[in-house]
Design brief:
Layout lengths: L1 H23 L4 E4 L6 E5 L4 H10 L7 E9 L14 E9 L4 E9 L5 E3 L8 H12 L2 E3 L25 H4 L7 H10 L19 E5 L11 E7 L2 E8 L7 H5 L8 H5 L7 H15 L5 H29 L5 H20 L8 E2 L2 E2 L7 H24 L2 H5 L9 H7 L4 H4 L7 H4 L20 H24 L25 H12 L7 E9 L2 E9 L7 E5 L2 H6 L1 H5 L4 H11 L3 H5 L1
Parallel strand pairs: 2-5, 6-7
Antiparallel strand pairs: 1-2, 3-4, 4-5, 8-9, 9-10, 11-12, 13-14, 14-15
Helix pairs in contact: 9-10, 9-16, 9-20, 10-11, 11-16, 16-20
Length: about 600
């Protein structure tokens, strides 16, 4: 069955490639073979906008979802693998829900500071992605409505993801803030409405501009939202992000494939091992590693425990944002029970760093099954109590029903994934549609709602915790026997006792432990259903001990971009409902 499915997918890819060649000409495209098997086509820069427009609007079924948009600095790559010569590459990842398939388009750019036509008028969510590429690489997008930095300060010099840009931690001296620089930075933070096309006055009123954040309990981190207000009504909103930016993608180029694993924990820091899962699935594709069945089930169990832990934080703080002070204390207490299980298995709690390339750090400890079973038996009663306490509360309903509404079409246009997409009635979950790590062997449902408002986004997440319990229970009852890591030279060094027998074994052990594995040249993308939506790692290797390029696609980034669109016309109090229902993490936005 799996072979037939794969063959069918390859046939569909060939059909699509032939359709595009027939429409635009053979010379427009160059096909590239990739490890992850995604149809990957290089497109001529002059025709990329026309091709993208066709794929979104005319192709049947369409690729209507702009999943991700990123760039690669190619100037230091060792192996081109037969791909077109380029100084920089723009990479578009498109998703067709009806086809259940991704498509990767790439454009080769030449020159020190090249330019591209903007597609922000074709997809709404392309706006921030293009700004990010401009910020990180210095690539201009002609026709963009407001091409300016988004993650780095406006005063920043250089573009951090270019290969020549130094790393803060290892290649620059201690940071110094002298008076002139402080004054310059403070002046750059002054908001000037005219820079954003906003007016200070209307015919009837003077608008007020209000900072919500950067330090505000409703922003759940260092987020600044500049509100244009007419009284208490929101006329417009400008999210100011980047306060949490740590250069996570830049650090990926300077760490080994193995030592980068703990860094992924800190992206969606409430999602724990899910960050590791998304990264390692891509690494294992590149390396050709098949993990044992026991590893797959252990990983799923930990991921679903973290889904519950993350949703409990959202649940409690959402209620707190709307005036309920008790639930957050009860829910954080139950989150500690999840962390007690995580600590017993992994040795750590919030950032367990337990997953490894090809497996996990060690086998499950004795007594793990009783710990997990006790929680599965305990938690349903608590979920029912929380439903009565929060979801059935009349004030909570009054502040969430009919607030922050968007349609399914709008959600797709803005790049919404996860519970926010399913709250519009769309039954899409990567665990079901494109299963990974053995999710296809589990019995669970995809919760949906219909109205696309703050309340329905809450309904979906609450039901997801029930489904996670079902999955965890199946893990306990059906945990396979076997190894906890793959027997593969790129993930498991030779046994220490064998290193004294021949020099080759000793060298292999030494290099794997000190430098880490050398991953074959190629590229691969993974995609998982994380706590807040679709999370991906798109990794490029040039056959070295470190990734050539690490691209992290997080769900919170496009979700926050949609905030102005769904906030206009509501009040400041409603904005807190909208923010709470979004369930974002600032490190997930900023990386």
């Amino acid at each position: 069955m799996k072979l037939n499915h794969k063959t069918k997918g390859m046939d569909n890819q060939s059909d699509l490639a032939e359709e595009l060649i027939s429409k635009f000409g053979f010379s427009t495209f160059t096909r590239q073979a990739t490890v992850d098997g995604l149809l990957t086509l290089w497109v001529e820069k002059a025709q990329v906008t026309e091709v993208l427009s066709y794929l979104k609007n005319s192709c049947n079924p369409p690729f209507d979802f702009l999943y991700d948009l990123c760039a690669i600095d190619e100037r230091s790559r060792i192996k081109l693998n037969g791909t077109p010569a380029a100084d920089f590459t723009i990479v578009y990842h498109l998703l067709s829900f009806k086809r259940n398939a991704f498509l990767r388009l790439k454009v080769a750019l030449s020159g020190e500071f090249p330019d591209m036509p903007s597609i922000s008028s074709l997809w709404k969510n392309a706006n921030w992605y293009e700004r990010e590429i401009y910020d990180m690489f210095g690539i201009n997008f002609n026709g963009h409505p407001n091409l300016r930095r988004i993650l780095m300060p406006l005063t920043w010099e250089g573009h951090p993801l270019r290969k020549e840009h130094p790393a803060r931690a290892t290649e620059l001296g201690p940071f110094k803030l002298w008076d002139e620089k402080e004054n310059l930075e403070m002046d750059a933070l002054q908001f000037r409405p005219e820079d954003w096309g906003l007016k200070r006055h209307s015919q009837d009123a003077d608008f007020m501009f209000l900072n919500l954040g950067p330090q505000h309990p409703g922003t759940h981190g260092v987020l600044r939202i500049i509100l244009q207000l007419d009284g208490e009504d929101i006329v417009d909103a400008i999210p100011d992000i980047g306060f949490h930016h740590r250069g996570a993608e830049k650090m990926g180029e300077r760490q080994s494939w193995h030592t980068y694993i703990p860094y992924t924990d800190r992206i969606d820091y409430l999602g724990g091992v899910m960050n590791n899962m998304a990264y390692l699935l891509a690494v294992e594709k590149l390396a050709g590693i098949e993990v044992p069945e026991r590893v797959k089930v252990m990983r799923i169990m930990l991921c679903e425990l973290f889904r519950i832990a993350s949703h409990l934080v959202w649940y409690g703080t959402f209620a707190q944002d709307l005036g309920q002070l008790s639930p957050v204390f009860y829910m954080f207490t139950d989150r500690e029970k999840v962390f007690n299980i995580v600590e017993a298995i992994c040795g750590d709690r919030m950032h367990p760093n337990w997953f490894r390339i090809g497996g996990v750090a060690q086998d499950l400890p004795k007594g793990w099954d009783k710990l997990v079973s006790d929680f599965v038996a305990y938690f349903p009663k608590r979920l029912r109590e929380y439903n009565n306490l929060v979801m059935r509360n009349s004030i909570f309903k009054a502040r969430t029903v009919g607030i922050g509404v968007y349609t399914l079409e709008e959600a797709i246009e803005w790049g919404v994934t996860g519970p926010g997409l399913r709250a519009c009635g769309f039954e899409w979950d990567f665990r079901k549609k494109q299963p990974y790590s053995g999710y296809e062997n589990f019995d669970f449902d995809i919760p949906t709602a219909q109205n696309g408002d703050c309340y329905d986004r809450a309904v979906v997440r609450v039901e997801e915790m029930w489904q996670s319990l079902r999955i965890i229970d199946q893990c306990v009852k059906n945990m396979p026997e076997g190894a906890y890591k793959a027997d593969h030279p790129l993930t498991t060094p030779p046994l220490k006792k064998n290193t004294m027998k021949d020099i080759e074994t000793l060298i292999t052990h030494f290099l794997n432990v000190s430098w880490g594995p050398v991953i074959p040249a190629g590229e691969a993308m993974s995609c998982i259903e994380a706590t807040k939506g679709a999370n991906s790692y798109y990794l490029s290797s040039d056959g070295n001990t470190s990734p050539y390029r690490v691209r992290i696609r997080t769900p919170s980034f496009p979700h926050m971009q949609m905030l102005p669109y769904i906030s206009k016309g509501y009040t400041v109090a409603d904005l807190l409902s909208i923010l709470g229902s979004m369930d974002y993490v600032l490190a997930d936005i900023d990386r």
